[in-house]
Amino acid sequence: MTGGTGFVGTWLLESFAWLNERLSLEAHMIVLSRSPELFRQRAPHLACLQAIDFIEGDVREFSWPDEKVDYVIHGAAQADARLNRDDPLLMLDTIVIGTRNVLEFSRARGIERFLFLSSGAVYGKQPQDISHIPEDFPGAPDLVDGESAYGESKRLGELACAIYHRRFRLHTVVARPFALLGPYLNLDIHFAVGNFIRNGLQGGPIEVKGDGTPYRSYLYTADLAVWLWTLLLRGQPGSAYNVGSEHAVTIAELAHSVAGCFQPQPEVTIRMKADPTRPQERYVPSTERARTQLGLLEHIGLNEALRRTIGWYHSSGVSGR
Which of 24, 51, 98, 258 gets the highest tally of CB atoms within 10 A of its CB? Predict the structure, then answer.
């Protein structure tokens, strides 16, 4: 697995360790990381497991492990708006060159299945008249906007997967995650729900920097882990699947839901006044393909996901400061 020490990768490691022990799978995972030592400090209970080995390197040019590998999960990328803005060329190279590098390794080793962690960002701006965006939507990021590097790089990564599937019969499956929520979420980057949780842990107020009208939906990371393992093992080769929740809420509603998880309940402030003439903004997937083909469902709703996530930060002694 590449990208195994980030938010999504850590949940895959947690679920792998849990399944490996309880089902006596005797499986072994190799994780590429730019800084295994930092991860050991952050998650020593995972880093010390004999079933998980870490190798240090950059996904663009690392040395391949010699061990036999059956499956590959490729997720190395930083979903960080600041990097996308400040160094889009690094974002582009990490995703595009890194994906080609990992695909070539997979082809050469004859691996059974390859899961690419793409993003809902590949669709670009969701049209106002589409409530839930499907996998066959033909939209794309704005190519004259330099900050489209993340979404467009993921599109190129998906294209590379399609080429390797068709030309080399590599069984590639693409996951397109939308907004996520759960323990290990970074509270200090551009994710609104993480910022709101941080504000709540600090005692409030919970601040909505915009007008609170955009719609988002949030999949809890325990459900995410189930979905991603299912896609790796049972997803249709050559296909892409949206991964997320279909239950949309406005950012303002989300802020009030977060506030309701704290006692005393912090104030919610909305910085900007809503403009009724502005088109409605949405980032909400249709997950019909995952439901109908693989039977995947969302089991943990937003309020329970918030309760569990905030409880985890409390139990971990995180104050948000």
Answer: 258
